[in-house]
Amino acid sequence: MKSYITRYNHKKIEERWLSYWEEKGFPHAGVNPSKEPYTISMPPPNVTDILHLGHALNITIQDIYIRWKRIQGYEALWVPGIDHASIATQVVVEKQLPEGKTKEDIGREKFLEMLWNWVGEKKSYILGQLKRLGCSADFRRTKFTLDPDLSIAVREAFVRLYEKGLIYRGDYVVNWCPRCQTALSNEEVEYEEKNGKLYYIRYRIPDTGYRMPDTGCRMPDYLVVATTRPETMLGDTALAVHPDDKRYKEYIGTYVILPLMNRQIPIIADFLVDPKFGTGVVKVTPAHDANDFEIGNKNGLEKIIIMDKRGKINENGGKYAGLSREEAREAIVEDLKKEGLLEKVKPYKHSIGHCYRCHIAIEPYLSRQWFVKMRDLAKPAIDAVEKGEIKFYPKRWKNVYLAWMKNIRDWCISRQLWWGHPMPVWYCQNEKCPTFGGIPSPRDKMQNGVIVAAEKPEKCPYCGGDNLVQDPDVLDTWFSAWLWPFSTLDWPKKTPEFNYFYPTDLLVTGPEIIFFWVARMIMAGYFFTGSHPFRNVYIHGTVRDRIGRKMSKSLGNGIDPLDIIEQYGTDALRFSILAVAGEGQDPRIEERTFELGRNFCNKLWNAKRLLEMLKEEHKEAHCEPDLADKWISSRLSGVIRDVERALQRYRLHEAVMCMYDFFWHEYCDFYLEIIKKSGHIEIGYYIFENLLRLLHPFMPFITEELYSGESSIMVSGYPKPVKKDREAEEIFGTAIEIITDIRNAKTSFNIPVKEKIPVYIEFENLDIIKSYIIFLAFVSEFIPSRPQKGIRRASHNYEIIIPLVGVIDIEKEKARIEKKISTLKALLQKTKKNLSNKEFMRKANPQVIKDARRKEKEIEKKLAILTEDLKETDNCYN
After folding, report:
1. Helix or strand or coil: residue 808?
2. Distance of CA 781 to the CA centre of its chain
3. Do residues 345 and 381 share a domain?
4. Are 186 and 102 within one domain?
5. CA 741, 745, 749: angle at the middle one, nearest 5?
6. How far is 668 from 687, CA to CA, in rounded Å?
7. Average pLDDT in the chain
């Protein structure tokens, strides 16, 4: 007999089994024609920091599917990796610089050395975290997005897109981060509602003697424009009105004087103007607003950049040069007041874009950048999801994906950073070259005199010169990430591994990167490989704290998974986080959440200890299956079917709770108690071992430890259901209901659970289940005739009456129940008072209100039960 210590100690077993699995090579996968492949490419965590509980949820889900398929006999490959996270990592490492120093001060080479040192340290820690989480990935294949082979894939992708005319360079208003000093894609901008101001500014109309045709009156002295950003007026090159706005038809084609700059600018008409905003007249700043840029292009307006890349006013801003955006706004507003040009200021709530990494307000900025044309790439990716070739779980995310894809814009892929994949673009510096100075040659496909190549050319292909310089920008992080499902499988080479494992089967990710990453991977898959990159996309919720806030370092509410593992164990963490993560919902986590998983581990451990002890006691026992054996075997089959169905539908919460309820409330609460007496250990063991195999993908360590098979549970084969025994389930199921009713009645009336009492039961198969009721409900006798008085419990197929006279002091029991009712009524009144208090409802955190409402319902439920119990005491007298 294997010896099991009294208490489960996760620390002693986890490290041992990690080493064993790796030593035996169970997580390793390769081309195996005799097996069906199953592939997952791990969403690579950023190298910026350690993993958090959100990663723990994501990794757990992936590991469940890999282990599930592996135990079923698939050649299951899970490719791990880490992302270089261009802008995020650069921002983090810049913060490590000595005070007062910038990356420019120490130079590119030294700064890149710092970045690689950071990567070495964090990469090692993150991989360690993945292993501690039970991640059964093939770590021999670990990828980093700046690895040489992935860099080859990135350059090849750029060249192919460029040659197809899908990458271009152009001047556009982009989202510029003054802190990170780089362009951002639209998806990298986070919008926040802010309480701001709307400034109404007077733009003077010069006196030209012009008279209004309708009235013959002279033109007014000024037009009023409402704006949230008075500092950008320094770059205004027009005012605009809607062509159909009758208020301003007579002004179209005339001019105003730009306040403070004394520059004459035209009044134009454009359909982009919203006549309901402000006064209906808007300022047009083509270099600092995307819509204004479009208006400017249509109307041939000058584009004046009035800020530098750090967000300070430049020489085009006149006397305001050198001021920050905020300082310039303050100075301009003050000067407008002095000149009588500020009509009024109103409070105004509006949405402001912020850099998703440093959270500084972005600046719309006219800049020359590289873009990918997305419309043509999007078409097959839209079709694939609409036709069901790629499925989203939960299904609602399909509509979110399609809505974005059908309104997709070109993707800005160049970043003014040092950390990332260099642009595979070179410029010839030979002044005699036809490409020099941005003049395109008619003989080639070059855009504005650039040379695009996967490797640095030895000479300029157009003049033979060797003075070539590479574009200083790097590619957006997501440009390497969108190739991830196939670049990690040796693309662009078509190796046997690529042909066998691609396309992958499942992507598990969070909702915040559907646009950043999921959509782009689908587009890349169809363009570069002609196939979908994965078949299924499971979107899990965002891990939040108890009151609903997203966990983050800035809020101080983050939890390191390793802290939880240290205290509760990996299996407890995995089981608990899934137990509170309903389908696609945001799980709310606090430390005590993990007590559920720890208690479940302890229950499994103690069940195995009990089985081992009973095995010793009943060595020679071999009996024919009785009703309880048939019931538990049939129930196990039902659970196997339910868990498999839940996994196929990506409803892991359902799978977890199904196994939890079966093991705790059926196997332990009833069946184990029965075999203590019956000695049917063989069937008890059979059920337990199959349950372990069912649980293994969810709780790998404890199931491996408790499993009795000769090989690893990881490759032991998935349990198969047998034919359902409806009769056994129905009869024994009724026995459980009867036993539970008797136990609950005892609890309600303060009768010790193990005190034997007489009962009356009417049920057609009572004789078959009498022995179980006597043993498990502690019944002293079955009353043959129906009593007139007593506690009554009934269902559709049975009736129970428990006489209480002589069993309890009924008057004393009534007094106890009445006192409890009084206490609960007072508590209910207090709770209702809070919920009807407008001030409380206005100020309280939403979670506090939710807790109060739940408490109200719980009290009302308890009161209803106690009130019914009180009535029943009146029915207990003869």
Report:
1. strand
2. 57
3. no
4. no
5. 175
6. 11
7. 89
DSSP code of 742? H
Same domain, 750 and 851: no
The alpha carbon of residue 147 and the mean position of all alpha carbons in its chain are separated, in whole angstroms, by: 26
Residue 788 Cα distances to 4, 521, 785, 792, 867, angstroms: 52, 72, 9, 10, 21
How many Cβ atoms from other residues are within 10 Å of residue 84's Cβ? 26
Nearest to 326 by CA among 447, 438, 197: 197
Are 199 and 328 contained in the same domain? yes
* Overall average pLDDT of the 642-664 stretch: 97
In this predicted structure, what is the pLDDT of residue 811? 66
pLDDT range class, residue 629, cuts 50, 70, 90: very high
Q: List, in sequence order, every beta strand (DSSP E) within 471-556.
A: 474-475, 504-509, 534-539
Q: How many structural domains are present in the chain?
A: 4
Q: 140 has which bridge partners?
A: none
Q: Which amino acid appears at position 338 of this protein?
A: K
Give the model confidence (pLDDT) of 654-682 as tens digits: 999 999 999 999 999 999 999 988 888 89
Examine residue 678 and state whether it is found in any structural domain, yes or no. Answer: no
Residues 126 and 211 in one domain: no
Structure confidence by residue, pLDDT tens digits, 421-438 = 999 999 988 888 877 655
CATH code (residue 855): 1.10.287
Closest CA to 158 of 527, 658, 609, 494: 527
Pairwise CA distance, residues 411 & 170, whole Å: 12
C-alpha 736, offset from chain centre: 40
Long-range contact pairs involving 32-37 (C-beta distance under 8 Å, separation at least 24): 32/75, 35/73, 35/74, 35/75, 36/74, 36/75, 37/74, 37/75, 37/76, 37/77, 37/500, 37/501
Any idea which of 212-221, 324-333, 448-457, 765-774 has the lowest mean pLDDT?
212-221
Do 189 and 245 lie in a common domain? yes
Burial of 873 (0-12, 13-18, 19+ CB in 10 A): buried
Rg (C-alpha) for the chain, rounded Å, is: 36
Query: Does residue 695 belong to any structural domain of this protein?
Result: no
Q: What range does the domain containing 250 cover?
A: 177-364
d(CA 476, CA 185): 9
Of the candidates 272, 266, 274, 314, the one whose C-alpha atom is nearest the C-alpha of residue 295 is: 272
Of the residues 787, 808, 829, the one at which a domain ends? 808
- Alpha carbon distance 761, 262 (integer Å): 99
CB burial of residue 185 (10 Å; 0-12, 13-18, 19+): buried
| DSSP reduced 3-state for 580 | coil
Q: What is the pTM of this model?
A: 0.84
Three-class DSSP category at 830: helix
pLDDT band at 379; cut points 50, 70, 90: very high
For residues 297 and 238, what is the distance between their CA atoms, to the nearest angstrom? 12
Phi-psi region of 455 (alpha: psi -120 to 50; beta: other; left: phi over 0): beta
Pairing of strands 143-144, 167-177: unpaired
Q: What is the dihedral of CA 42, 48, 53, 59, to 10 degrees?
A: 10
Q: Which of 540, 569, 587 is the last residue of a domain?
A: 540
Residue 157, classed as helix, strand or coil, is helix
Beta bridge partners of 130: none
Compute CA 286 distance to the chain's CA centroid, rounded to the nearest angstrom: 37
Same domain, 136 and 45: yes
Q: Based on the domain organization, do 782 and 746 belong to the same domain?
A: yes
Q: Report the C-alpha gap between 607 and 667 in whole angstroms.
A: 9
